[in-house]
Amino acid sequence: MSKTLIIGASGQIGKMTTQKLLDNGETVVGLVRDKSKLNDIKSDKLEVVEGDLEQDFSHAFKGCDKVIFAAGSGGSTGADKTMLIDLWAACKAVDYAKAANVSQFVMVSSIGADDPSQGSDKMKPYLVAKHMADEHLINSGVAYTILRPGSLKDEDAKGGFQTAKPGSKDKMIITREDVADALVYLLSNQNLTNKTYELFNGDHSLEQAFA
């Protein structure tokens, strides 16, 4: 039986992805710092595991064959937390996944992670962290998909997607719920492994966007 570990399951994208997988009948392990943050999700297919991403959290991988890394330090933290969560915790997650013989690892990254030098001074530490974590995953030997969504919006899902970068910055956006839908889709399509995708709201279905 397939079991998916979601790292950062109490975050906005992580929680939506958790619920969507459960709605599909999937078995999910949600890794959180505080179990109470998932009290609003009721399912006998959900196992909630507590862990600190700044410490050893390898125990969360037991019995899991798929992983989504959806954790992040958050926009209100400093560069220190960015390095500890977006880089170091992500790299540790990759190493734990490899040791656990995980068959698929989906990383939530960011547009701009391909070339952090092009980012603003404020964004560079975050983009460097994402870039290095992505590279660690690519070089790990673990089957991966890296998703680099555009600027995230707290709106209802649009249901339309594109992987081609829009011509104007104001269109380089995507709702968090659409990202969650994309993560669920990527998990169910093994032919999309060992690839990196940027993702924005657009006019295509997920099938068309990832074709």
UniProtKB/TrEMBL annotation:
Pfam families noted in UniProt: NAD_binding_10
Domain of life of the organism encoding this protein: Bacteria
Coiled-coil regions, chain positions: none
All copies of domain NAD(P)-binding, residue ranges: 8-189
Protein name: SDR family oxidoreductase
Organism: Paraglaciecola mesophila
Classification of source organism: Bacteria, Pseudomonadati, Pseudomonadota, Gammaproteobacteria, Alteromonadales
